[in-house]
Design brief:
Blueprint (H helix, E strand, L loop, with lengths): L1 E6 L5 H14 L4 E6 L24 H4 L5 E5 L3 E3 L4 H4 L8 E3 L10 E2 L7 E2 L11 E5 L10 H7 L1 H5 L9 E3 L6 E2 L10 E3 L16 H11 L7 H18 L1
Parallel strand pairs: 1-2, 1-3, 5-9, 10-11
Antiparallel strand pairs: 3-8, 4-11, 5-8, 6-7
Length: 245
């Protein structure tokens, strides 16, 4: 069964569930979702100086896999419009990790505009390479990725894959990590809402927002019920109990 480690940040929990829904709708064989949630990682600080809660914990995937087999990591703010097993089919045991090797300068100086997560969108070497990764968890060079090492290595070192030689980093097709708002619109297998999810007002009409919202509504599907009514009732009952407490 394909293990998919997904970055989870409670401040935008919906994106995790939308990503999972998109995978479920297209996968033709079973997958296993593992949320990289800080509360599950024995006190490991997955955020440190990053903007999301899994900026560091993503590098624990080989360790969490017992340094065996292959596994995928993805940021939570993504959707797939294809069978994600097609991605693992690209696994090549020659490499320690495989990524989309983005080579771009950001077009947007700020991200998460209009939200409490608003932040500078800085350029840095190998930016967004680590947002989709196929890990060869058993590769000898990945055995250094223990919690103690990852917790102290620093963001620049990890995001630039400096624990590896360049020839240990394989390349994936761009269609498996299309950066919405940074690249021209196109048909892709994986859309990465790196600037902000369509759930946020500022990005509600961004590329692939129609698909994102469809997956969100499908995740809320209950036969015979309207999704809006499900949300309204949940909010009402939760508010009543909160006020009663």
């Amino acid at each position: 069964m394909l293990p998919i480690y997904v970055g989870y940040d409670p401040r935008e929990a919906a994106v995790y569930h939308v990503f999972c829904q998109s995978v479920i709708e297209h996968a033709k064989s079973p997958v296993c979702f593992i949320p990289l949630h800080q509360a599950h990682l024995n006190g490991f600080d997955g955020q440190q100086d990053g903007t999301n809660a899994f900026i560091f914990s993503r590098y624990l995937v080989p360790y969490l896999q017992g340094f065996e087999g292959a596994a995928i990591f993805v940021d939570g703010d993504m959707i797939v419009n294809a069978d994600i097993n097609e991605l693992i089919d690209l696994f090549d045991p020659e490499y320690a990790v495989q990524v989309v090797k983005h080579d771009y300068q950001t077009r947007q100086p700020r991200k998460y505009i209009g939200t409490p997560l608003a932040n500078d969108n800085k350029d840095y070497p190998r930016k967004n390479w680590s947002s989709v990764m196929i890990f060869n968890c058993g590769h000898p060079s990945n055995r250094i990725l223990l919690p103690e090492f990852v917790g102290e290595a620093g963001g620049a070192f990890l995001h630039r894959f400096q624990w590896l030689n360049d020839d240990e980093i394989g390349e994936l097709p761009l269609e498996w990590n299309h950066l919405v708002g940074e690249y021209p619109e196109t048909d892709a297998k994986l859309y990465h809402h790196t600037l902000g999810s369509p759930a946020f007002e500022h990005y509600k009409e961004c590329e692939s927002s129609k698909d994102w919202n469809r997956y969100l509504l499908n995740a809320l599907h209950m036969e015979g019920e309207r999704q809006g009514e499900i949300v309204r009732r949940a909010h009402w009952h939760y508010s009543v109990k909160e006020n009663a407490a």
